[in-house]
Sequence to fold (189 residues):
Amino acid sequence: MSYVIREYTPADETSWLRCRVLSFLGTAYFDDVHKAKPDVVAPGFELVAVGEDGLVVGIMDVTAQGELATIDTVAVHPDHQRKGIGRALLSEARTRVRALPVVTLDAWTRDDPDTLWWYRAMGFAESAHYLHVYADRYADESEPDRAIGERRPGLRPVAVFLHGDLRDEQAMRQQFTRVHVCRRFCMAP
Fold:
């Protein structure tokens, strides 16, 4: 299959969303679902890889502020993974980032073996870690209460998403069903 890498346009939104959702389903980001494409807040660019049928098969959104550029979203549709699309998107992103005053390109991701492998294979190095902790009553009814402690009258937490210190990983894994190590990967553009 051939594809073209180009700038995202609003007409790509539905296809962009499908690509992102389907690519995230098999990862630790399986529940990071949006009904609309999030706006890029900082300066940057949004790339898509589009197949012959006009559908988005890969995406990469990058924000840049000062000397740092961050990959906010990278995803390749599951039917098109392991065909070099992610590598091609990264190559185009690096070319664009080099035209900016950026000295570091980074990305944050969770502990998915395939994702970690990809970042390492692309030349990124790990530089920081922290925890993503989910307290969800559907996993264990008491998790949300344990996560937030004191409750407001009339409100009952159902799910809570928290950031935690990596030093507390063992204790968090004993208390909560879903704990991920969030990792920062960096490289020079």
